């Protein structure tokens, strides 16, 4: 019996070690495949972006638009080509371009003749403040209205929340921005029509904060509408589940039932959506920045 037990233990340990080895092999294979596909995607994206910069005419014409290259000395024309790197073979140009991108060198702006990276860093804080404030507005308003619409189903609050979501997702931001300026700045005079102000003193002081409210609301409204609809549908699915009905039958109060059991399980889809929206705001704030003359 003792020898049988020892052999069983050895067999169990051997099977466990084999299972661990197979698991490590499968995970390693999965990671290698994902890393390889990510590498291929990055290389493909860089080739595509680099190709877009070479589709147009000779970039030397952009630096001398007055003459279009006519009458320019040949040695000056070749020197400009050397400076721009367009005389090199295409694969050498691509390698130099990738190397500069990795080091943050995006070249010079044709309009201002300044480094593009310095222009981005100069205006990035303004975009970050705009994106962060709009994201907080969208998260707070979207979650609140979604919870209220699901709890007050088929009431005036539900209809108002759905109308808010419908208008927010159907109206372009440039139209919403212009309309907000006309109503709240021109007619009512509550908020400034644009710019960021002078930023004197504390940031949250009304003298500074009033410049941010309209851009935050206009930029955050479509996202708040999406979060509201996602929260409402998720909450309704949870509130109609069997364990919620059982908790109600056992006499659990409505408030802890909603906050402890309902929202805890329904918050995952809206939370995932909100994290993705924060990255999108950094790319999609251009229209609002133009409407409100955001520096």
From TrEMBL:
Membrane topology reported for the UniProt record: Multi-pass membrane protein
Listed Pfam families: BPD_transp_1, BPD_transp_1_N
Species this protein is from: marine metagenome
Descriptive protein name: ABC transmembrane type-1 domain-containing protein
Entry GO MF terms: dipeptide transmembrane transporter activity
Localization annotation: Cell membrane
Lineage: unclassified sequences, metagenomes, ecological metagenomes
Coiled-coil portions: none
Family annotation (InterPro entries): BPD_transp_1_N (IPR045621), MetI-like (IPR000515), MetI-like_sf (IPR035906)
């Amino acid at each position: 019996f003792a020898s049988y037990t020892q052999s069983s233990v050895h067999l169990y340990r051997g099977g466990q070690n084999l299972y661990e080895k197979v698991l490590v092999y499968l995970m390693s294979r999965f990671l290698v495949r994902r890393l390889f596909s990510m590498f291929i995607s990055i290389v493909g994206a860089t080739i595509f972006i680099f190709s877009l910069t070479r589709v147009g005419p000779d970039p030397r014409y952009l630096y001398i638009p007055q003459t279009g290259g006519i009458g320019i000395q040949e040695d000056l024309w070749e020197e400009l080509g050397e400076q721009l790197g367009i005389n090199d073979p295409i694969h050498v140009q691509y390698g130099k371009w990738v190397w500069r991108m990795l080091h943050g060198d995006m070249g010079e702006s044709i309009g201002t003749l300044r480094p593009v990276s310095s222009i981005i860093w100069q205006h990035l804080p303004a975009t970050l403040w705009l994106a962060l404030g709009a994201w907080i507005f969208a998260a707070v308003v979207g979650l609140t209205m979604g919870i209220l619409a699901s709890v007050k189903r088929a009431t005036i609050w539900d209809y108002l929340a759905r109308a808010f979501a419908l208008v927010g997702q159907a109206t372009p931001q440039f139209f919403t921005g212009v309309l907000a300026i006309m109503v709240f700045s021109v007619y009512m005079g509550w908020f400034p029509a644009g710019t960021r102000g002078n930023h004197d003193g504390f940031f949250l002081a009304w003298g500074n904060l009033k410049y941010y409210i309209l851009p935050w609301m206009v930029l955050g409204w479509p996202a708040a509408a999406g979060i509201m609809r996602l929260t409402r549908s998720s909450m309704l699915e949870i509130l109609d589940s069997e364990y919620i009905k059982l908790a109600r039958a056992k006499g659990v109060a409505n408030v802890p039932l909603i906050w402890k059991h309902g929202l805890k399980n329904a918050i995952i889809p809206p939370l995932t959506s909100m994290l993705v929206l924060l990255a999108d705001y950094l790319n999609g704030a251009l229209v609002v920045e133009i409407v409100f003359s955001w520096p």
